[in-house]
Amino acid sequence: MFKYLKFMSFHLMAVIAITSITLGGTYISIGFAIWVAVYLGGDIVFGNDTETPQYRYPALLTWQLWLALPLTVILIFVCCWQFASQDIGQYGAWVSSLTGYDALSARQNTSVIQYGVMVIYLGLVVGVMATITGHELTHRTWQPVSLLIGRWLLAFSFDANFAIEHVYGHHKYVSTLNDPATAPRGRSVYAHIIISTIKGNISAWHIEQQRLVRKQLAVWSWHNKALRGYAMSVAIMVWVFWLAGWQGLSFFVLMALWAKATLEIVNYMEHYGLVRELNSPVKPHHSWNTNKRVSSWAMFNLTRHSHHHAQGQLPYHQLSPYPDAPQMIGGYLSTFVLTLIPPLWHRLMLPKLQHWDAHFATPAEYHMAQQANQQSGIAAYQACA
Amino acid sequence: MLSMFTAKQVSLTINDEIVIAQTSVKHSILTAALAANIAFPHHCRVGSCGACRCKLVAGEVKQLTDSAYVLSADAIAQGMILACQSLPKTDINIQLNLHQRPLADEPQE
């Protein structure tokens, strides 16, 4: 039973987020603190999970993933309600009658600082619940419903086209210079957020354009999945504006951009500094792996990234832990925080990269890695070339 | 589980010489070939690299993804498909070079 339940932590965490935002005021910060404590502290305290249990009912795991969409919709609705001038859908009155808590007056007292916290908080929640789930679902080409739900989940961070770029670009080019999502040695996470976002969108457009040309379909038409992807985000924005006006829309745009940034930070952590020859097989050593328990449960084994790239068709519960693959510094959220301080990050990654060059790289990759060190612009990296 | 036993079975013929007498219409051509211990060229298994491309000579398949993301218009016109993304709908016959390398980038059209 627990082997099913352990992948439901994001559902519980979503309920905490929905509750804390409904309560308003300082509860928003408290909810955020719970998230950070669980995901940052949990990985430090609870160690690794390297089990790969057999599942008799994998469909249950799929339903768990699908639930992310209604939860995301409810979450965004509650945020819109916080920003709206009216009691949309009588939500505040309903909460008051149900619990006796005066949510409406608490809402009036929610400060600007709490709104700021809400942007950071929600971007993280959407990053975990919508984006990572969306990633898992967009790989399931044998389940059309999963593909559709996955794209809608990604649309909450303006990124439905990730489903195109990720599968036909990133998985093909991972750890090569052709991959927008692989950060070369020496690049800071802040540069990567901008570069990978722009190049990723351009790449998705080119991939889609090429498909349409090959099929002799018009690029500017509804056949264009990239255009449809942007339209999905516009539809969500129209819904948010209808619920909560300009204030709500401003919140949503900031939140969604931050959620997209969290995805790029995760890309950054997953492949930083790794190299591979174009057209050579993708091996487990072309990703940074981690088996931290809390991260693995919360992000349903996205952490087992080495196996994911080596065999992208496998649903997450079939991924193996690969303890011998190159290991990330910590779990996902702790590593995430480290990337935000570039000098510290580059320094911490240097011994990891040196170890990678010495133990994992093929002779050709070793040579490429030395070049990457030279081009990194960091003296310490250049010194070990 | 029950559906596994009731799913329609078809045959898969490779290069007119290797015959897999029974495979489920729910398994991709690549999965069926690998399960039969055939060294079928493959790489990403998500329909992005093209290493498992093969020519459909006879029969019908259901393609899970649009092969135009990976294969050129010429290749598609010649009947090329991606084995990892194709489920057989009928008995099928395919041809491929069992020693082929992954696709280098297709030229842009």
Ordered list of secondary-structure elements with their pairings:
The complex is a heterodimer of chains A (385) and B (109).
Chain A: H1 2-5, H2 9-23, H3 27-46, H4 58-66, H5 68-83, H6 91-99, H7 103-108, H8 112-138, H9 144-155, H10 162-173, H11 189-214, H12 225-271, H13 293-298, H14 305-310, H15 332-339, H16 342-359, H17 363-375, H18 379-383
Helix pairs in contact in A: 2-3, 2-5, 2-8, 3-8, 5-8, 5-12, 8-9, 8-12, 10-11, 11-12, 12-15
Chain B: H1 2-6, E1 9-14, E2 18-24, H2 29-35, E3 53-58, E4 61-63, H3 73-77, E5 80-82, E6 86-88, E7 92-95
Parallel strand pairs in B: 1-7
Antiparallel strand pairs in B: 1-2, 3-5, 3-7, 4-6
| H/E element order of chain A | HHHHHHHHHHHHHHHHHH
CATH architectural designation of chain B:
Roll
Based on CA inertia axes, which overall geometry of chain B fits?
A: globular
Number of helices of chain A: 18
Average pLDDT taken over every residue of chain B: 86
For the residues shown, what is the average pLDDT of chain A? 95
Beta-strand residue fraction of chain A:
under 5%
Q: What form of chain A results from the Cα inertia axes?
A: globular
Task: Evaluate the radius of gyration of chain A.
Answer: 21 Å
